[in-house]
Amino acid sequence: MPLSAGIDIGSSTVKFVILDNHNIAKWEVVPSTSQPLKVSKTFLDKLEEDIPVTATGYGRDLIEADRKIPTISEIKAHALGAGFLFPSCRSIIDIGGQDVKAISLDNNGRVNRFEMNDRCAAGTGKFLEITSGKFNYTLEEFRSAALRGKDGIKISSLCTVFAESEIIGLINRGCSPEDISRALHWSVVNRIKPMYRRVEATGPTAVTGGGAKNAALVELLSQCLQTEILHSPYSQIAGAIGCAISAAK
Fold this sequence. Notes:
The chain has 249 residues and is an alpha/beta fold. It folds into 2 domains: 1-86 and 237-249, 2-Layer Sandwich (Nucleotidyltransferase, domain 5), CATH 3.30.420; 89-231, 2-Layer Sandwich (Nucleotidyltransferase, domain 5). The chain contains 9 helices and 9 strands. It has helices at residues 36-44, 60-67, 74-85, 125-132, 139-148, 160-172, 177-198, 215-225, 238-248, and strands at residues 3-9, 13-20, 23-31, 53-56, 91-95, 100-105, 111-117, 205-208, 229-230. It has a 5-stranded mixed sheet with strand order 7-6-5-8-9, sandwiched between helices. Strand 1 and strand 2 (13-20) form a beta hairpin. Helix 4 runs antiparallel to helix 7. The mean pLDDT is 92.
């Protein structure tokens, strides 16, 4: 089948992909806003009727009910998408807006074990988005500051609210914003590490989701996990790619 499409309806963004004979023909990332279904339908309305579509993500049930579009789990979608982007990967860390997933794969690229943190914002993109606001940084400025910062500060709170209190205390003590930014990124990495270990992840690790755009996170994950971290400009849309692959089948 020459064309297929995938939609990943996340809490922060909606990702769209069109594959043409398993090549990425078109892709787009747009804010979910407060109406992710409306955003998704805008994309679907542009598709030709005979193009198969599969959806995943936070809002997949909305689109399934509204348009009778088949859905797959985020775990399966990211496994398929990461395997497409990085055939050598044997594990995945998906860092989304409101959850983090650690996934190990078998030698055939199938899901072996997975674990998800979806009960708390700690370790997620939302955690970094909220804490970056304490410095009036944009997310890009926050990432750059973390790369410039030095190690030595530790953020002990796993709760976003308590972490904000720690940040204020560190600022009052005269700690630099760069060093605090780096410590906050380390706190995310240290939250991910035990999940990664529990799924018995091995080999090259693909980072997917919006967190893959964060160079500081990628660098610190590589240091902490002591493994090769795989990422590309398409890492954020891995879930949508996986959906398009599923739709093509």
